[in-house]
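ok so I'm stuck.
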Amino acid sequence: MANPPLDFELESSSGGTRSLQALRGRVVVLFWEDRERQRQNTALKRELGRFAGDPTITRAVSVVAVADLSAYDFAPARGISRAAIGLIAPAVGIEILLDWRQTLGSPPFSLNAGRSNVMVIDSAGREVLRREGQLDATQRAEIIDAVRVLLA
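replied:
not stuck anymore, here's the structure
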C-alpha cells in the first residue's frame, strides 16, 4: 500500500495559513529549520535558486521554507518571532511558514528537531527523499537529481 499524501496547515509569514495540499501537482522541496540551523544549507538554497532560473521549473517546483518556532511559542516571544520573520521573508524572497508546535517533527513527517531538514515531495504529495544536517556536495546533488527525475 502506498503512503498517503502528506499534508499540513501552517501560519504564513505573509498572513493567513498555507497547506501542503494546495501545492499538489507541483514538486516540493521543503526545508524545516530552527533559527540556529537556518544557514546550514545555504549552498543547497543557492543551487536551487540557480536551478529555478528556468521558468518551466519555476512553474513546476515550489520551495517551501518552514521555521521550527516551537522554542518561541510563548508571549512575548511569539509576537517578536512573527514580526522578525515578517521582515526576513521579503528580504530572502520567499514566504516562510511558521511551525509553532513542531508539526513537522511529528508523524507522518517525523523530521528531526534541532537539525536542518530537507525533504523532496512529489506532485502527488508523497515523500521521495529526505536529508538532514549540513549537506555535503553529494547529498545536495541527490536533492537536485531527485527534483530533475520528478520533472522528467
